[in-house]
């Protein structure tokens, strides 16, 4: 399981909004010069992200919580989001070039159609099995000095 710590910033019925701050390990990573995560963290400036998760542990506003997602789910989601569109982009380019070798615009159009089909396929897949990719609460840590409350109450 891959875990991340965050703070509950809002409660909505049986769900909570958890805010996480991107903590980059880029300075200690051996491949930092070629890493896309480093680029994204640099662009966002380490800004906070918010995610809506099921409140299965009775977390309250201000609680520090630990979120987790299975490695297999993350890998599967990565394949659907990155590999499928990229593969269909290449296939669309090759098909367009095969259909009209004298026109690069047909290949460009095939690439665009392939990319769009890949994104559409990833979106359809995420709506069918999206729960599988959602992080879940695995621990609640009330703020220091706060009274510990039982789960579900």
Compact overview of the structure:
With 153 residues, the protein is an alpha+beta fold. It contains three helices and five strands, in the order ββαββααβ. The protein has one domain.
Describe the secondary-structure layout.
Elements: E1 2-12, E2 15-21, H1 36-44, E3 48-54, E4 64-69, H2 71-99, H3 104-129, E5 136-141
Antiparallel strand pairs: 1-2, 1-4, 2-3, 4-5
Could you characterize the architecture of this molecule?
The chain has helices at 36-44, 71-99, 104-129, and strands spanning 2-12, 15-21, 48-54, 64-69, 136-141. It is of the alpha+beta class and 153 residues long. The chain has one domain (2-141). It has a five-stranded antiparallel beta sheet with strand order 3-2-1-4-5. It is elongated and about 75 Å long.
Spatial extent as radius of gyration: 21 Å
Largest sheet report: 5 strands, antiparallel
Largest sheet strand order? 3-2-1-4-5
The tally of helices reads: 3
- Low-pLDDT stretches: none
| Secondary-structure element pattern, one letter each | EEHEEHHE
Number of domains: 1
